[in-house]
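User: Assemble these into one structure.

Assistant: Restating your components, then the assembled model:
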Amino acid sequence: MAIILDGRQVAAALRAELLAEASAFASERGRKPSLAAVEVSGDAASQSYVRAIRRACDSTGFDFRNEQLPGDVDQVSLEEAIRALNSDSEVDGIILQLPLPGHLDAPAAIEQIDPHKDVDGAHPANLGRLAQGLPTLVPNTPAGGMELLRRYGIPIAGQRATVVGRSNVVGKPMALLLLQEHATVTICHSRTPDLAAVIRESDIVAVAAGRAGLVTGAMIKPGATVVDFGINVANDGMMRGDVDFGGASAVAGAITPVPGGTGPVTNMMLLRNTLRAARRLRRDV
Ligand code: NDP
């Protein structure tokens, strides 16, 4: 039976560390580190995510501001709202809640975020820095996956790693982070002809496809480490990952559950990025 990579436990440890760091920051600077979310009304999942960010900020001594814009806001006003936060010296980090309504251009809006405040690591300048192995603000979800591997002492250097999914928010940055830690990395996607054959050769498998149960136990090499980023809500309201946990946990050496794996760590990474952004701004001033 696999070791469970317990995201709730890791998130609790991170919360305690962040609380101490935020309090040290507040006594140095006379204010709390602060995060602003830009939310365009209309997406229920975004609303619940913003509530979760607010709770995470409250429990760790961060200020949180929600810039809520109406569902019919135009591109110009959205970008103005982002630029106003860029020039607000009391705001350290900015996160733009996605998805945006169809009439808005998300990549253009993301490009308006000051890269020094881009705590979601979404700006092309930050992803470019990550690709070049330069210090940067790393996207939170893959950063959380790496934190789980690190805290459980999973070896990465020299290991064969497969990432399923190539989105800019999860798959691609996860592959870059594994590469940075000297894994031999393969990226799979919807056009990969034989997913099972690739996964079967992998010591580490990270899955971010958004397809419930895509990766089964039969695909996994005995003893491999499995990181499941998938969040799929079934008809019965239950949350399921992209990995068939029952089958996979019987074969894997270590595995993240869903829920309770990568999810809880993601918000802690957002706060860690906010602190990093706050400190970098201070150095630049
Ligand atoms: P996207 O839909 O942007 O990307 C999905 C990726 O999976 C694409 O690259 C797609 O390939 C690939 N894919 C889809 N179907 C298959 C398949 N059958 N075989 C192989 N590859 C496939 O999703 P995200 O990256 O935004 O999110 C992925 C998952 O992670 C979702 O379940 C999401 O809810 C979850 N998530 C979890 C977070 C967390 O905190 N744990 C945070 C953010 C997301 P192609 O490019 O060819 O289309």
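The chain has ten helices and eleven strands.
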